[in-house]
Specification:
Structural class: mainly alpha
Order of helices and strands: HHHH
Number of domains: 1
Radius of gyration: 24 Å
Length: 76
């Protein structure tokens, strides 16, 4: 019979704990992602956030102005 190695067992348990705590943050898919190219092109051409919001509304996409601005900040 083999000896019980408490140190090795603790190391194994600590490794399991670390793996369990590790969170996976997945990026949510934005409804604006479908229009990313158009939004960035319009923004580079000089369109304001409010104008982009109106453009999206014409496409039947409703979102707050802050959402549009945050999207541009992250993706532009």
């Amino acid at each position: 019979m083999s000896e019980f190695d408490a140190t090795a067992e603790v190391e194994r348990l600590k490794a399991q704990t670390k793996a369990r705590r590790k969170r996976v943050y997945s990026r949510r898919i934005s409804k604006l992602d479908a229009y990313k190219g158009e939004l960035l092109s319009l923004h580079r051409a000089g369109a304001s956030g409010a104008e982009l919001q109106r453009w999206l509304k014409e496409k039947r996409i409703t979102c707050a102005l802050s959402t549009v601005l945050r999207y541009l900040q992250k993706n532009g």
